[in-house]
Specification:
With about 210 residues, this protein is α+β, with helices and mostly antiparallel strands. It has one domain (about 5-195). The protein is built from four helices and twelve strands. It has helices at about 70-80, 125-135, 135-140, 200-205, and strands spanning about 15, 25-30, 35, 50, 65-70, 90-95, 95-100, 115, 140-150, 150-160, 165-175, 185-200. About 35% of the residues are buried. The protein binds zinc ion. Zinc ion binds near residues 83, 86 and 125.
Length: about 210
C-alpha cells in the first residue's frame, strides 16, 4: 500500500478502518469440489467463481488501520483499475496503467515483467504526491506502466479437504481460472503485469529530479 502517498489526514482508499471487521464464517466442502460457505450468498464469489473472505463495510468509521487492507475495496480498485490512494481512475496512457512498485529489480532479469501485483494502481496526482512527500520512495519504489494486466489471480488461504470441514493450509497466489482457485478463500485480487516500462515520474509530472 502506498501509505506515503497520503496527504496528512487523507487515508488511502483501500485502507481498512477499525470499525471494519472480519466477519465470522463457516467453510464447508462444495459438492462440486473446492470450498463454500455454509450460508453462502451469490456476492460471496467473484465473476471467476472464487470465494471471497467477508469483511464489513464502515469506511471512515473509527481509526484508519494502515496495516490492514479492506478486501472489498482492494478488489474493487484492482478490478476497475482505480487508484489505491484516492479511489479515482488510475493513470492510463498509451504506455499502460501506472503502478508504484517496491524496487525489486534485483529479483530477476526483466523485472517487473510477469510480476503478480497485489496493490492496485495509482493516479498521476497521487504518484506525484508520493514522490514529493516521501524522499525514500525515490530510491525504494519505482513507477511502472504496464500495457497488459488481464491475467487475474487471487491471494488468500488455500484449503485442503478435511473432516469435518476443509482446513486452511497455506497462503498462496492462484490464477483465478485454475482449478486450485476453487480451494482458495481470497482476500486480495492480483493482476500479473506484462509489457512493462519504467516511468520517469519527474518528467511526467514536472517534479524536480531526485539528487
Ligand atoms: Zn489517486
Amino acid at each position: 500500500m502506498v501509505e506515503a502517498a497520503t496527504r496528512p489526514g487523507v487515508v488511502p482508499y483501500i485502507t481498512a478502518w477499525s470499525e471494519e471487521q472480519y466477519a465470522r464464517f463457516d467453510v464447508v466442502a462444495h459438492p462440486a469440489g473446492g470450498i463454500a460457505y455454509r450460508d453462502e450468498v451469490p456476492h460471496d464469489r467473484d465473476a471467476d467463481g472464487v470465494l471471497w473472505a467477508r469483511m464489513t463495510h464502515a469506511r471512515g468509521q473509527g481509526r484508519p488501520d494502515f496495516g490492514r487492507v479492506h478486501f472489498g475495496r482492494q478488489r474493487r480498485a484492482m478490478r476497475a483499475l482505480l487508484c489505491q490512494v484516492c479511489g479515482g481512475p488510475a493513470s492510463r496512457t498509451d504506455e499502460g496503467v501506472l503502478w508504484l512498485l517496491k524496487d525489486d529489480r534485483a529479483d530477476w532479469p526483466g523485472w517487473p515483467e510477469g510480476m503478480a501485483a497485489t496493490h492496485p494502481p495509482v493516479c498521476l496526482a497521487c504518484a506525484r504526491t508520493a514522490a514529493r512527500r516521501c524522499p525514500h520512495l525515490r530510491g525504494g519504489c519505482v513507477a511502472v506502466r504496464a500495457r497488459e494486466f488481464g491475467t487475474r489471480a487471487v491471494y488468500g488461504s488455500l484449503y485442503r479437504p478435511g473432516v469435518p470441514a476443509p482446513v486452511a493450509a497455506a497462503e498462496v497466489i492462484a490464477a483465478s481460472r485454475e482449478p486450485r482457485a476453487r480451494w482458495v478463500l481470497a482476500t486480495q485480487m492480483v493482476r500479473v503485469l506484462r509489457q512493462c516500462s519504467f516511468v520517469d515520474l519527474a518528467a511526467e509530472t514536472g517534479l524536480p529530479r531526485a539528487a
